[in-house]
Amino acid sequence: MFLTLMGSVVIAGIVGYASERSGFTRNGYLPSIIICVGGAFLFYFLRIMFGIGFGSPGLDAVISSIGALVIVPTHYRNR
Questions:
Q1: Which of 17, 33, 73, 74 has the greatest number of C-beta atoms within 10 Å?
Q2: Between the CA atoms of 12, 16, 18 and 23, what dihedral angle is there, to the nearest 10 degrees?
């Protein structure tokens, strides 16, 4: 279980870096990685507590990271 959590964090960090590098987001490298890791943590714990998931833990980490990158910056952009 611990290795799954660490793998999710690593995958989320890679997704955050890649999204910033490719131009998908314009938050900065560190904020994008932090947002992705937070989304991966949240979804990992939802998976443990409620059994919600899309398949493998790696796929869950990628989907939750992209979802967090879409939701968080656009929610606070107009403020």
A1: 33
A2: 150
**From CA 35, how far away is CA 41, in angstroms rounded?**
10
pTM of the model: 0.86
| Alpha-carbon dihedral sign for residues 7, 71, 42, 33 | positive
Coarse DSSP helix, strand, coil percentages of the chain, rounded to the nearest 5 percent = 80, 0, 20
At residue 77, the pLDDT reads 63
Q: Indicate whether 61 belongs to any domain.
A: yes
Measured distance CA(19)–CA(12) in Å, rounded = 10
SS3 category, 72: helix
Tokens found for residue 20: 């910033």
Contact 18, 67 (CB under 8 A): no
How many CA atoms does the CB half-sphere of 30 hold within 13 Å? 0
